[in-house]
TrEMBL record:
One GO MF term attached to the UniProt entry: DNA-binding transcription factor activity
Protein name: Helix-turn-helix transcriptional regulator
PROSITE patterns in the record: HTH_ARSR_2
Matches recorded under CDD domains: HTH_ARSR (cd00090)
Residue ranges annotated for the HTH arsR-type domain, each copy included: 16-110
SUPFAM superfamilies linked to this entry: Winged helix' DNA-binding domain
Length: 116
């Protein structure tokens, strides 16, 4: 039996945009979809990056992957792979610097089923 220590899998960051180049309309479009907003709400409540499979989304894996991609490409989240798992985390500090108060206001808002 080998006495070599096992190395932890390396983290591989997925590409995400520089928020200085992201228009607010792209962020709003990403957050305007209820499933993506739910993902962001979950991330905002978590103290650690979340494994993408831990969200319990009621959509197919390909649809889930699409929604995470939209959030990443709009600058709302960052993602990294560790081994065979993909993790997401909210870019809340960067979003606050770029769009002061925007994320806080969106997360504090409640859904109005009457649409008014």
């Amino acid at each position: 039996m080998s006495t070599r220590a096992r190395r932890a899998p390396a983290k591989k960051a997925l590409p995400h945009p520089d928020l200085r180049e992201v228009p607010v309309s792209l962020v709003l479009r990403a957050l305007g979809e209820p499933l993506r907003l739910g993902i962001v709400r979950s991330l905002a409540q978590s103290e650690h990056p979340m494994n993408c499979s831990s969200f319990g989304l009621s959509v197919s894996k390909s649809t889930s992957t699409y929604h995470f991609k939209v959030l990443r490409e709009s600058g709302v989240i960052s993602q990294f792979e560790e081994g065979t798992s993909r993790y997401s985390e909210l870019r809340d500090t960067e979003l606050e610097q770029r769009f002061p108060g925007l994320l806080t206001a969106i997360l504090a808002a409640t859904e109005d089923p009457a649409g008014g």
